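FYI - complex with guanosine-5'-monophosphate, inputs then prediction.
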Amino acid sequence: MSAKGALFVVSAPSGAGKTTLVNLVRERLPNLAYSVSSTTRPPRAGEVHGRDYFFLSEQEFKKGVEEGRWAEWARVHGNYYGTDARWLEDALDAGCFLLLDIDVQGARQIKQRFPDGVFVFILPPSMEELKRRLAGRGTDDPDVVARRLADAEWEMDNRDFYDHEIMNDDLETAAGELLSIIRSRGEPPPCPAAT
Ligand code: ADP
Ligand code: 5GP
């Protein structure tokens, strides 16, 4: 990792509440730069291109692979996702604190490239609660929910790879834990990439 910035990676089985948690932490740490991934997944209702994701066609995504555009990329729950390498390196060089919300496969690739990164796994309180949250979110068709639940077991089996685990039972408690992990590296400095 760059001597200047700091890199935090969070992963979780789908429905654990990672996005909710990350959004809360971002509100409280406005200087924290969030990596907007690219994906071939169709947008959910309310998602905005460039804010939640860059929504690409499969052809555009694969062109990015050929061009070495991704710092990491993976096929997750049947769609492609990737992190822009240039954005990541520029933000770290500028001394920013960065947060990446990526899956287990991507986290392992980032660890190879940035071994000083801090890796955090978000756990649901139980698999029953995970099912409730995933179905209750109401954004995905039943077949998509089933696919994500089937993938959750494998994702949970990878939790030992991470430096920290946070159980997202009470949202405020979990947010406090993530905030203190980030602040253990110092207070995020002003960052042009954190917009
Ligand atoms: P992920 O990004 O991990 O897939 P989301 O952040 O979309 O998950 O959360 C999935 C659902 O669970 C959402 O409906 C969200 O409001 C709800 N949720 C998130 N955190 C909690 C929590 N601590 N307690 C109860 N419900 C939660
Ligand atoms: P969702 O479709 O629910 O937004 O995200 C599905 C999964 O893809 C989550 O585990 C999320 O962390 C992961 N993901 C999002 N962006 C990236 C990325 O850039 N790279 C990788 N490897 N995974 C990502």
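The domain at 6-194 is CATH 3.40.50.300 (Rossmann fold). Helices lie at 18-28, 58-66, 85-93, 104-113, 127-137, 142-157, 171-183.
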